[in-house]
Automatic annotation (TrEMBL):
Coiled coil: none annotated. InterPro entries: Homeodomain-like_sf (IPR009057), HTH_RpiR (IPR000281), RpiR-like (IPR047640), RpiR-like_SIS (IPR035472), SIS_dom (IPR001347), SIS_dom_sf (IPR046348), WH-like_DNA-bd_sf (IPR036388). The keyword Transit peptide does not apply. Keywords: DNA-binding, Transcription, Transcription regulation. Residues 1-68 form the HTH rpiR-type domain. This is MurR/RpiR family transcriptional regulator. SUPFAM superfamilies: Homeodomain-like (SSF46689), SIS domain (SSF53697). Residues 107-249 form the SIS domain. The keyword DNA-binding applies. CDD domains: SIS_RpiR. It comes from the Bacteria. PROSITE patterns: HTH_RPIR, SIS. It holds the Pfam family HTH_6.
Length: 252
């Protein structure tokens, strides 16, 4: 679970995200001078964000900026818009690289053998979950979606072993989803997590975990409205793979 930043650390992180393109070329001393914070603050912030240190964070950024997008046909492009395009491309490409076909296969088999699909989601993830529910229903698979926190907690206590539960959560730390996953774990209910945080409480509780890549860049730093693009990519692959497998079963 991500540790809360102090006021100074939060200021530093906001400075870093605002100047993200310059960070890979800065030393920790130079960043300290520019942001007017101590090197100790930089190290603490990096560790709270899940990196071994500032150098590890810079390596991460350089990998993220390794892109094949060609902007040659655009005479002039605002640097911030270009940054947005690259952010989305990286989230898609790195999510695709992180998906394990074996986990997809296991998930499909669990879904096929279940009597009911129960999807739990909160916040902006509800939009992806709603699309999943409709697509499962279009394949004549029974599927419910629950987004109310009280219903999620209560519903998770009354599931059957013939059910399969799919959690859609960006950070995997939403309290009611974690509680529901704990209930499923205790009752030995099959669970699938679609998330971007493989170290989250939700990921540790779920049987199968499909993990996407979440960029550190956010254009709404003061609000928790990060892109659910990685979750959408995973959901689409899971649904498409399920339909393909169903068609193969019919042909047999």
């Amino acid at each position: 679970m991500e540790v809360k930043l102090s006021e100074t650390e939060a200021y530093l992180w906001k400075y870093i995200t605002k100047n993200i393109h310059e960070i890979p070329n800065l030393s920790i001393i130079k960043l300290s001078e520019l942001a007017n914070v101590s090197t100790s603050t930089i190290v603490r912030t990096m560790k709270k964000k899940g990196y071994e240190g500032f150098t590890a964070f810079k390596h991460h950024l350089k990998d993220e900026q390794n892109t094949t997008i060609n902007f040659a046909n655009v005479e002039k492009i605002d640097s911030e818009i270009k940054r947005s395009i690259l952010k989305n491309e990286q989230e898609v490409i790195r999510t695709l690289n992180m998906i394990h076909t074996g986990v997809i296969e296991d998930a499909i088999q669990k879904i096929q053998s279940s009597e009911r699909i129960i999807i739990f989601a909160r916040g902006f993830s509800e939009l992806i979950a709603e699309e999943m529910k409709i697509k499962f229903q279009l394949t004549d698979k029974y599927c419910e979606l629950h987004t109310d926190p009280n219903i999620i907690k209560t519903m998770s206590k009354h599931l059957k072993k013939t059910d399969i539960v799919i959690f859609v959560s960006l950070n995997g730390e939403t309290e009611e989803l974690v509680d529901a996953a704990q209930n499923c774990y205790q009752k030995e209910i099959g669970t699938i997590a679609i998330t971007t945080n493989k170290e989250s409480p939700l990921s540790h509780l779920c049987e199968l975990v499909l993990v996407g890549f979440k960029s550190e860049i956010s254009f709404f730093p003061d609000y928790e409205v990060r892109s659910r693009l990685p979750l959408s990519v995973i959901a689409r692959i899971l649904l498409d793979s399920y339909v393909i497998r169903m068609k193969q079963e019919i042909k047999r």
